[in-house]
């Protein structure tokens, strides 16, 4: 392929590996974070369905929640076994040392206060069994990109639609991290 102009980017992928340096980050004022245990009830918040939460927990997904003054300000999921990106047709099978972060939401009233970045950083600090943590966002989602980078993740590649209409993956560079992301996603290059 001769250039970026011939393709439409769908999403950007990032990685963080245990031992990677973390940029300085002041926690968002008043934000507390917690992993919700498998026996704890799902917190009451629009967008968090108790039955769906129970099903996802049974599938090995972990729920993390951010609160401000006791109110749910946002949440996100950590996949520990499998994960899928439906719009890309990707099914990931994670090793015991890998995680995929997905399904993050910040309540509109709390956006712009650092909730997302604080929640991401809390997950990096909390999940001591994870050696590789992956995350992605849709192209053009600048707030997600900003939060992911501020939390300490490194861009590793992108999903794009080639000139022939096929969804493909292009890794950023030829290092071990970019190759590992390519293998995990299993998309044609």
Describe the structure.
The structure is a single chain. By secondary structure, the protein is α+β, with helices and mostly antiparallel strands. It has a single domain, classed as Aminopeptidase, CATH 3.40.630. The chain contains 4 helices and 10 strands. It has helices at 50-58, 115-126, 142-151, 176-185, and strands at 8-17, 31-36, 62-68, 71-79, 82-85, 90-93, 98-106, 132-138, 154-161, 167-171. The strands form 2 sheets. It has an 8-stranded mixed sheet with strand order 2-3-4-7-8-1-9-10, with helices on both faces. Strands 5-6 form a two-stranded antiparallel sheet. Helix 2 packs parallel to helix 3. The longest helix is centred in the middle third of the chain and has 12 residues, at 115-126. The chain is globular, with a radius of gyration of 17 Å.
What secondary-structure arrangement, pairings included, does this model have?
Blueprint: E1 8-17, E2 31-36, H1 50-58, E3 62-68, E4 71-79, E5 82-85, E6 90-93, E7 98-106, H2 115-126, E8 132-138, H3 142-151, E9 154-161, E10 167-171, H4 176-185
Parallel strand pairs: 7-8
Antiparallel strand pairs: 1-8, 1-9, 2-3, 3-4, 4-7, 5-6, 9-10
Helix pairs in contact: 2-3
């Amino acid at each position: 392929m001769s250039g970026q102009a011939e393709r439409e980017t769908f999403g950007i992928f990032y990685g963080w590996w245990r031992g990677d340096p973390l940029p300085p980050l002041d926690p968002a004022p008043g934000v507390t974070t917690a992993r919700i245990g498998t026996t704890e009830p799902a917190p009451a918040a629009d967008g968090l369905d108790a039955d769906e939460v129970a099903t996802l927990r049974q599938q090995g997904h972990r729920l993390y929640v951010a609160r401000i003054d006791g109110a749910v300000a946002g949440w996100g999921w950590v996949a520990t076994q499998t994960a899928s990106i439906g719009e890309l047709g990707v099914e990931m099978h994670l090793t015991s040392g890998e995680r995929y972060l997905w399904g993050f939401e910040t309540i509109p009233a709390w956006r712009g206060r650092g909730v997302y970045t604080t929640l991401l950083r809390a997950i990096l600090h909390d999940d001591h069994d994870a050696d590789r943590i992956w995350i992605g966002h849709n192209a053009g989602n600048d707030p997600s990109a900003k939060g992911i980078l501020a939390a300490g993740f490194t861009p590793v590649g992108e999903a794009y639609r080639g000139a022939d209409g096929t969804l493909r993956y292009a890794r950023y560079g030829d290092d071990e991290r970019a190759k590992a992301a390519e293998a995990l996603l299993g998309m044609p290059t």
